Automatic annotation (TrEMBL):
Protein name: Uncharacterized protein
Key words, A-Z: Cell membrane, GTP-binding, Lipoprotein, Membrane, Nucleotide-binding, Prenylation, Protein transport, Transport
Compartments it resides in: Cell membrane
Mode of membrane association: Lipid-anchor
Residue range from the parent sequence: 9 to 179 of 208
GO terms, biological process: protein transport; vesicle organization; vesicle-mediated transport
Family listed: Belongs to the small GTPase superfamily. Rab family.
MF GO annotations: GTP binding; GTPase activity
Superkingdom as given in the UniProt entry: Eukaryota
GO terms for cellular component: endosome; plasma membrane
Length: 171
């Protein structure tokens, strides 16, 4: 019988980068071309097997990216063990927004929070505006995990959560 260890995880990022789509791919293994913009925040859970002894349960807050909800974010990241900061590889401005979230987390979130920078919509290579190496370097400089993924195809989605789980303190 594996031991169950729970962690809180928050997703942050500009509206329409695909935060909800990433969570739905991870939790339900589904994708919707016409997902509605999140209002406030949504709560979902998913477990993954870290190893035969330990199962990790993620309690996930999928926040709303629209500017009008910005002031709610601290409620969700304040007690989080991990944060996934998402940008859209086809929108340069979304990386700028991601950098601001990273700064805010580094100042206001828990000292030992595990942060991942995630470039979503990797399936839209022909519309790319953000260079992979540029974002990867930025993540390295800030000491963050880094992934390019596609919620649409599912590529890389499980890897985000698996790698975060491996960095969390399970004792
Ligand atoms: P807010 O809730 O407003 O903050 O947005 P969000 O970040 O949750 O974005 P959401 O998941 O609602 O996705 C926005 C749009 O992008 C939807 O139309 C999705 O179908 C689309 N989308 C999400 N992920 C991908 C992806 O990996 N590839 C492509 N091509 N489209 C995607
Ligand atoms: Mg959403």
């Amino acid at each position: 019988q594996p031991r169950l260890v729970q962690f809180k995880l928050v997703l942050l990022g500009e509206s329409a980068v695909g935060k909800s789509s990433i969570v739905h791919r991870f939790v339900k293994d589904s994708f919707d071309d016409y997902r509605e913009s999140t209002i406030g925040a949504a709560f979902l859970t998913q477990t993954i097997e870290l190893n035969p002894e330990i199962t990790i349960k993620f309690e996930i807050w999928d926040t709303a990216g629209q500017e009008r909800y910005k002031s709610l974010a601290p409620m969700y990241y304040r007690n989080s063990n991990a944060a996934v900061v998402v940008y859209d590889i086809t929108q340069e401005s979304s990386l700028e927004r991601a950098k601001i979230w990273i700064k805010e987390l580094q100042r206001q979130a828990s000292q030992d929070i595990v942060i991942a920078l995630v470039g979503n919509k990797a399936d839209l290579e022909e519309e790319r505006q953000v260079d992979n190496e540029h974002a990867k370097l930025l993540a390295e400089e800030e000491g963050l995990l880094f992934f390019e993924v596609s919620a649409k195809s599912g590529d890389g989605i499980k890897t985000i959560f698996q790698n975060i789980a491996e960095k969390l303190p399970v004792e």
